[in-house]
Write a structure and sequence with these properties.
This protein is α/β, with parallel strands linked by helices and 246 residues long. Helices cover 26% and strands 24% of the residues. The protein is built from six helices and eleven strands. The longest helix has 19 residues.
Length: 246
């Protein structure tokens, strides 16, 4: 399995996604858009992972590559590839599918519980998840749910925390499958330290002003990371397992 990650800023890399890929024997390449590297061709990957960043999916005038990245997401779906979006990446998937991206009522920053919806039981990637999980949040915007998507998780502040959407590729192909996570199941202590060092751009970005939780609370204990990574691995394993031809 060829995994390609799109990285937008130095402090939001693949983190635990890289560990999952190495453990499963998948190859992983990272395209550094913050270094000006060109977007890959769809033929170069089987799974596209769109990482987070402090910019908005609406910032096309500030970051012209956002237009091309949305195009690549659309091409990934058309080519029956697999797709994972994390935080900004989730919003980019929603935007590529024609949905609004807009300021949340307030930023969500910290280790906050999400409720797994009843609909998740019929999804490929979240079936079997517990009723609640407690990942890291670091966002100031939210999105509308694409048509045909299964809403997987919610909070009171942002009901659309995660979704899965499957696209019919025809009788001989499994079709594209996309998983969008507003939160960070891929967080590691190293990745969170990098986010903290970047001075919490979400607190002063498009989502409006918000207080940064104490650094100690954001970094959390090893138990926090150990608790969320099995959920990430299970979701990714399901995401890349192509169903039998219909």
């Amino acid at each position: 399995m060829r995994v390609r990650a799109l990285q937008h800023v130095p402090h939001e890399g693949p983190a635990a996604v890289a560990a999952w890929a190495a453990d499963r024997g998948h190859s992983l390449q990272v395209t550094r858009l913050d270094w000006g590297e060109p977007l890959p061709a769809v033929a170069d990957f089987d799974l596209l992972v769109v990482m987070g960043g402090p910019m908005s999916a609406n910032d096309e005038a500030l970051h012209p590559w956002i237009v091309e990245e949305k195009r690549l997401i659309g091409e990934t779906i058309q080519a029956d590839r697999r797709l994972l979006g994390i935080c900004l990446g989730a919003q980019m998937i929603a935007a590529a599918l024609g949905k609004r991206i807009y300021a949340a009522p307030a930023p969500e920053i910290g280790w906050l519980a999400v409720r797994v919806t009843a609909g998740a039981a019929r999804s490929r990637t979240f079936a079997g998840m517990p009723a609640t999980i407690t990942p890291l949040h670091w966002h100031g915007e939210t999105f509308d749910l694409p048509e045909g998507a299964i809403r997987l998780a919610e909070t009171d502040l942002c009901p659309n925390q995660a979704f899965e959407i499957e696209f019919d590729g025809g009788p001989e192909r499994g079709g594209a499958l996309a998983l969008a996570l507003q939160f960070h199941l891929e967080a590691t202590e190293e990745s969170v330290r990098a986010m903290v060092a970047a001075e919490n751009p979400c607190a002063t970005g498009a989502g409006g002003a918000g207080a940064l939780p104490p650094e100690k609370a954001l970094l959390a204990s090893p138990a926090h990371y150990a608790a969320i990574h099995p959920f990430l691995h299970a979701a990714l394993d399901a995401l890349v397992t192509r169903p039998a031809a219909r």
